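Technical note accompanying the year-one report. For the benefit of new consortium partners, we illustrate the data format agreed upon in the data management plan: each record pairs a sequence with a structure-token string. No post-processing was applied to the example shown here.
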Amino acid sequence: RSEIDPHSRHLTVSDLKLSDAGIYTCEYGSRTVSISLHVFKLTISLDGHFLPNDVPELTLMQSASHPLPDLSIAVFTSNSNTVIPEVLQDKTHQKYILKLKKLKVMDNGRWMCHVHSDSPLINQSIPFDVKVLGFQNPDLQKKYAAVDSPVVLTWHLNFQKIRWKEGFTGQLSWKQENATTHELLDFNVTAQGNKHETRKSRHFWFEIPEKRPDNIEVKLPKVHFSHSGRYQCQLVYKRRRVQSEIELVVMKVSANHVGPLPRGAQVTLTCQVSSPLPPNAHLLWERVNGTQMDIKKSKQHEVKLEVNVSAAGLWNCHLVEDNDRKISSDYLVEEAPVWISYVVIGASIGGSVLMFGLACLCIISGVNRQRRRQRAKRMARARQYLLENKTCQCQQ
């Protein structure tokens, strides 16, 4: 593992080991030069491959011919931020164990371990790689959609970006509150970075868009109100797991009267969202090109808002969060033609007259039945009277 350059008299030692530490002496004629070689060995737990929230552990070993110095160690992230590790060392100063902070996906990159000593003078920077496999959007995301509209749910992985050369698996599932979890698809990524996806659910209609190496993606071409809930993407690497969730919030609008609105009639429009709203959010009904009187706002935490409409026009319902409209749905109230209004009025009047006539006939019929019943009772009493008081008169 060593060679000497005959021109410069330099000694090159390749693939250094701790056992290579010591004093090296160069003799050239009557001249003798000695150099002390101090060797450091830095290793990182899990071979530098981590998931978010893992805590890396560095092991620093040193070897030299003279007494080992007490080292001062500093660690810097790829963004040159200082990390203060928890340091454990043995009494001989030969071995140092450094526990670092919990990792995040953005901690990927080349870190630096700086070693310092005053006697002997040592200022050595040792680079090491930290790779964190995970989602570029790890926090809970919210996605908003209106009923019957398409929506695409996307999870961005970083295994291509960090050149992750080991295989892992994962799955995508969907769950509503207090309901059973439904598996939608499984995926696996090979050591070469090739991704394969397998559909698991036949009852939940979704599409898998064109494959993108770093993304797990599903498309709901026509959202139903029942599609709301939490969609969780989970990946598994060496029996350790990390997941990211997207909450799908769905809005629907409806009316208690379908079709054109007759003149003088009223319809109730209802706007509803699929999940509870945070304190900084509310629902808002407003009429397009309307006045301030045509605006109605929900109370805190209300997930359903109704508005009574007596005039035709286009109405919009908005989900507003911190003055930002997250989603909107509209409902068009059409005015019925005049002849329909007259038909409705005529039908109403005709129906009223018909009901009145039927009521009169019922009353007259009832009175006649009562009179006939009373007449029959009187005749029966008369016959009974004659039978009881019958006499026979004979002429002499």
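Partners are asked to follow this layout when depositing records. DSSP finds one helix and 27 strands in the chain.
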